[in-house]
Amino acid sequence: MGEEKIRTYDELEDDEKEVLDAFRQMKLMSDYNRFRLYKFKVEDLIKDYEQLKKLRENIQAKYFSVYQEIVNEGLIEGELDASIWGITRDNENEAWDAELRLMSEIKTHFDIAINMIESGEADQSIIDAENNF
């Protein structure tokens, strides 16, 4: 069996380059559309977290308000320990913020990849890698 040398992109015939270019473009378009889809999903998730945090804040404010009204009406006795709620909310926010940071980082990576494809930088990078193989 003879050993065939692996050729670089520059060593290919024009028709071979054309086929390789077409496959590269199909792969880049596939990646581009996948990145855009998941960027959209991540953005939607980030919005949900922001709404969740706002909803939690509104629920807590409403809870304290209703509780205080009931106490003021003499329907129940006691004081509400807001510090417990504060600790719980701080813990929730800490966990949610960590998840949001991760999703924001992922979104940034998708943004970079999308920009590289749109600018042609990804295509050139692949060609350069093929030439240096």
Polypeptide structure, described:
The protein is mostly helical. It has helices at 14-72, 82-119, 121-131. The protein has 3 helices and no strands. Helix 1 runs antiparallel to helix 2. The longest helix has 59 residues, at 14-72. The radius of gyration is 28 Å and the shape is rod-shaped.
Question: Quick gist of this model?
Answer:
The chain is mainly α and 133 residues long.
Number of strands: 0
Reported for the largest beta sheet, the result is: none
What is the average of the pLDDT values?
91
The portion of residues forming beta strands comes to under 5%
Name the helix and strand elements from N-terminus to C-terminus, one letter apiece: HHH
Task: Look at the helices and sheets and give the structural class.
Answer: mainly alpha
Give the oligomeric state: single chain
Provide a count of the helices.
3
Radius of gyration: 28 Å
Q: Choose one word for the global shape.
A: rod-shaped
Q: End-to-end span in angstroms?
A: 23 Å
Uncertain ranges: none
Portion of residues within helices: over 70%
